[in-house]
Amino acid sequence: MPANPDYPELTSGKAHWRYQPSSACLQDQVILITGAGDGIGRSAAKTFAVHGANVILLGRTRSKLEAVFDWITDHTDTEPVIVPCDLLVVDDNSANALAQAIEEGFGRLDGILHNASLLGPKTPVAYYPSEDWAKVMQVNAFAPFLLTRTLLPLLQQSANASVVMTSSSVGRQGRAYWGAYAVSKFALEGLCQVLADEHENVNRVRFNSLNPGGTRTTMRATAYPAEDPGEVPTPESRMDIYLYLFEQASLSLTGAQIDARTWKGPQAPTAAPAS
Ligand SMILES: NC(=O)c1ccc[n+]([C@@H]2O[C@H](COP(=O)([O-])OP(=O)(O)OC[C@H]3O[C@@H](n4cnc5c(N)ncnc54)[C@H](OP(=O)(O)O)[C@@H]3O)[C@@H](O)[C@H]2O)c1
Question: Does ligand 1 lie within 6 Å of residue 118's CB atom?
C-alpha cells in the first residue's frame, strides 16, 4: 500500500478522529458497502481500502462506482469489486447471485456496511404519497434485511464479521415531516437489535447501528438546503468510528446504538451493548 495515498480529505478528516486505528487495521478483510458511489459510502470505501480491505462496491450508478474503483486501484494494493445494483428492485434472485459471486471471489464476507438510503419527500404523513413510502421502505429497510439474510452464511465463514446498519437521529426519535425515512430507520434499528440478539453467543457475527449525524453529502444538502455545507463535518472526519466498527478492536461489541457525534472512542461508555 502506498505510504501516502493522496487522499487530502482523509488527511484533513483525521484531525477530528477520536481514535487512531493502525494503518493496516482492515488488512485482507472483505467488506460490502452499499451506496458506495457517493457521500459517506464513497468515503468509507476509499478509507477501508486505504486500511487494507478488499471492498465490494454496491450502488445504482455505475459511473460513480467506477470512479471509486479507479481511485482505489490507483492508490492501494487491494482488490475492489463493482456491483451495480438498484436496491429498489433487489430480490431473492439478485441477492443470491451476489452471494454466489462473493463466494466464488472471496469464499467469505467479513462485513457489510448498510449505507445506501433514500431520503424521500419531507412532508406530513397525511400527504405522504404511498408510492414514495414503499420505495423508501424498500431501499432503507427491506434491502438491508434481504442482503443480510442472504449473506449470513458467508458472514459466518469469517473469523469475526461485522454488520453495521446506518441509522439517523430521526430513526431513534421520530420527527415531524421525516415520514418514511424516519420509519425506515426505526425498522433498521429493530432489524439490528433482532439480529444481534439472535447471534449473541451463537457465532462470530456482530451487529451494530450507527448514526453518522449531520455529514456533508448530497443527502444532507437536500434535507437542509439553507445550511452552509462548510459548517457540516466531512464524511472523512467520521471515518474513525467506521473503521473501529469493522476492525478487531470492536470484536465484543454487538447490539449497540452508536452516535458518531457523541462517540468518544472505544474506551468511552457511549455505546450500550444489548443484554
Ligand atoms: N449525510 C447525513 O447528514 C446523514 C445523517 C444521518 C444519517 N445518514 C445516513 O448515512 C447514509 C449515507 O448517506 P449520505 O448522506 O452519504 O447519502 P448520499 O450522499 O445521498 O449517498 C447515498 C448513496 O446511496 C445510494 N443509493 C440510493 N438509493 C439507492 C438504490 N436504490 N440502490 C442502490 N444505491 C442507492 C446513492 O446512489 P447514487 O449515487 O446513485 O445516487 C448514493 O451513493 C444513509 O443511510 C443516510 O440515511 C446521513
Answer: yes
- Active centre residues (catalytic): 181
Provide the pLDDT for residue 203.
Answer: 66
Task: Set out the domains of the chain in order of their start, with CATH numbers.
Answer: 23-259 (3.40.50.720)
**pLDDT digit string, tens, across residues 119-165:** 999 999 999 999 999 999 999 999 999 999 999 999 999 999 999 99
33 CA → ligand 1 middle, Å: 11
Ligand 1 pocket mutation pick from 118, 165, 219, 241 by most atoms within 8 angstroms of CB: 219
Verify whether ligand 1 is closer than 6 Å to residue 234 (CB atom): no
Centre of ligand 1 to C-alpha 169, Å, is 15
Q: Are 245 and 165 in contact (CB under 8 A)?
A: no
In 3D space, the residue among 271, 241, 234 whose CA is nearest the CA of residue 256 turns out to be: 271
The radius of gyration computed from the CA coordinates of the chain, to the nearest angstrom, equals 17
Reported pTM: 0.96
The C-alpha cell that represents 248 in the structure block = 478487531
CB 35 near ligand 1, within 6 Å: yes
Nearest protein Cα to ligand 1, atom 40: 61
Average pLDDT, the chain: 94
Cα 275 vs. chain centroid, distance in angstroms? 24
In sign, the C-alpha dihedral spanning 99, 28, 271, 199 is: positive
Query: How far is residue 140's CA from residue 118's CA, in Å, rounded to a whole number?
Result: 7
